[in-house]
Design goal:
CATH topology of the largest domain: Rossmann fold
Strand order of the largest sheet: 6-5-4-7-8-12-11
Distance between the termini: 60 Å
Oligomer: single chain
CATH superfamily of the largest domain: Vaccinia Virus protein VP39
CATH architecture of the largest domain: 3-Layer(aba) Sandwich
Number of domains: 2
Number of helices: 18
Active site: 274 (proton acceptor)
Organism: Triticum aestivum
Subunit structure: Homodimer.
Function: Methyltransferase which catalyzes the transfer of a methyl group onto N-acetylserotonin, producing melatonin (N-acetyl-5-methoxytryptamine).
Domain O-methyltransferase dimerisation: 26-110
Order of helices and strands: HHHEHHEEHHHHHHHHEHEHEEHEEHEHEE
Length: 371
């Protein structure tokens, strides 16, 4: 009886079956958009359009990117994917030529031109997300869930590559450059906006701030420029700090955030905690608590990270989908994008007494955590 009920529930009309087939195939092909975006970024197609006054033909793109003449028709196919997905726009002229233009998305892929363009260029971040080593790890999801041998590996990345992501970055200079360039690009774009839009968070900074895991100090430099009275320090691993350029307004300290964080009124954690499971986050936060004064004396931790679902019912489909996709992406290094109750748990276990979340447009929030 139950099997007949199940079959009835699964019954669909011909139109429904074909529509379901279409949707299934569409979901299966979504990764092609990422591959096309990665290719466009590597070819600097956005720069080609920008340098031609914001409009370029296929011949213009071919000339700028230096593609082989035999691949000209394939470039048109690539651009068709990129325009259909909204990365670029296409304007078909009367004589049949197609002129490609930038959209608000592809404007973030422009690195040519003035300083303003370079500060907004997120091309390096695409290189972090659309990365062969990360994608290879995600191909092991089924085995990671089901294979008994995977229990010895704490992450998908280790199962696929035999080492952690951080170990690969440490031994592969190229991977390290890709990662650091991506983090710097994100900081260049986001920090100035966040300091302006979240003045209540940053306006109450004390006299000192330490940026934990701050790499070459891009985020801390923006804070130092906006608040000259704040002494800014960057803590990162010795090999990372050793490669940091000299900066008159920053002090670089080599060290391990699991073992020690320099004393400061404010500790900044930008896109750090989502890389680590709960037990490691608690260890990091306990070191943060040791580093800052009491709340009455102005001590706090500022976390820039995602709070899944923080926009509530007003959250757009794109934002919601980006959050959950990012969560599975970060799973490849055993990271996690947390909902508020998950953040609350690690804050209180680390010994903090209160927190405040300020949602920001996009996929990140600012969390102030108080001792």
């Amino acid at each position: 009886m139950s099997s007949h009920v199940q079959e009835d529930e699964l019954a669909m009309s011909s139109d429904e079956l074909l529509q379901a087939q279409l949707e299934l195939y569409h979901h299966s092909f979504v990764y092609v958009k990422s591959m096309a975006l990665g290719a466009a970024t590597d070819l600097r197609i956005a720069d080609a359009i920008h340098l031609r006054g914001g409009a370029a033909t296929l011949s213009d793109l071919a000339a700028h990117t230096g593609i082989h003449p035999t691949k000209f028709s394939h470039l048109r196919r690539l651009m068709r994917v990129l325009t259909t997905s909204g990365i670029f726009s296409a304007d078909v002229k009367a004589r049949g030529d197609t002129v490609y233009k930038l959209t608000r998305v592809s404007r973030l892929l422009v690195g040519a031109g003035g300083e303003s363009s370079r500060r907004r260029d997120l091309s390096p971040m695409v290189g972090v997300f659309v990365n062969p080593v990360a994608i290879a790890a995600l191909f092991s999801i089924r085995e990671w869930f089901t294979d008994e041998n995977s229990a010895a590996s704490s992450s998908l990345f280790e199962m696929a590559h035999g080492c952690t992501r951080w170990e690969m970055i440490a031994k592969d200079a190229g991977e390290g450059r890709v990662f650091n360039a991506g983090m710097a690009a994100d900081s260049c774009l986001s920090m100035e906006i966040l300091l302006k839009e979240c003045s209540s968070v940053f306006g109450s900074l004390g006299s000192s701030l330490v940026d934990v895991g701050g790499a070459h100090g891009t985020a801390a430099a923006v804070v130092a420029k906006a608040f000259p009275h704040v002494k800014c320090t960057v803590l990162d691993l010795p090999r990372v700090v050793a490669g940091a350029p000299a900066h008159a307004n920053l002090t670089f300290v080599p060290g391990d955030m699991f073992e020690y964080i320099p004393p400061a009124d404010t500790v900044l954690l930008k896109w750090v905690l989502h890389d680590w499971p709960d037990e490691d986050c608690i260890k990091i936060l306990r070191q943060c608590k040791k580093a800052i004064p009491t709340r009455d004396a102005g001590g706090k931790v500022i976390i820039m990270d995602m709070v899944v679902g923080s926009q509530g019912l007003q959250q757009e489909t794109v934002s919601n989908e980006a959050e959950v996709l990012f969560d599975v992406f970060i799973m490849h290094i055993d990271g996690i994008q947390r909902e508020e109750h998950e953040w609350r748990k690690i804050f209180f276990e680390a010994g903090f007494s209160d927190y405040k979340i300020t949602p920001v447009t996009g996929i990140r929030s600012i969390i102030e955590v108080y001792p």
